[in-house]
Amino acid sequence: MKRIIVILVMLTVVAAMVISGSSITVKGSDTLVRLGQRWAEAYMKKNPGVTVQVSGGGSGTGIAALINGTTDICEASRDMKPKEYKMAEKRGIKPYRISVALDGIAVYLNKNNPVTVLSLAQLKGIYTGSVTNWKEVGGEDHQIILYGRENNSGTYAFFKEHVLKKEDYADRTQTLPGTAAVVNAVEHDKYGIGYGGIAWATGVKDAKVKKDDNSPAVAPSLTTVSNGTYPISRELYWFFNGKPTGDLKKIVNWALSEEGQNIAKEVDYVPLPKEMALKSMVK
Amino acid sequence: MEKYHFKPKSKIKEFLGEKFISLNAYLSLLAIILIFVFIFKEAIPIFTDADVKEEASVGKMVFKQHYYPDRPAKWGWQPNSEVPKYSLLPLFIGSIKAAIIAMLFAVPLAVAAAVYVSEFASLKIREIIKPIIEILAGIPSVVLGFFALIVLATLLQNIFGFTFRLNAINAGIALGLAVIPIVFTIAEDAMRAVPGTLRDASLALGANPWQVSFTVVLPAAFPGIASGVLLGFGRAMGETMIVLMASGNAAIISASFTDSIRTFAATIAAEMGEVVFGSTHYDVLFFIGTLLFVLTFLINLVGDYIRLKLKERLQGKLS
Question: Nearest CA to A259 among A71, A74, A45, A78?
Answer without folding.
Answer: A45
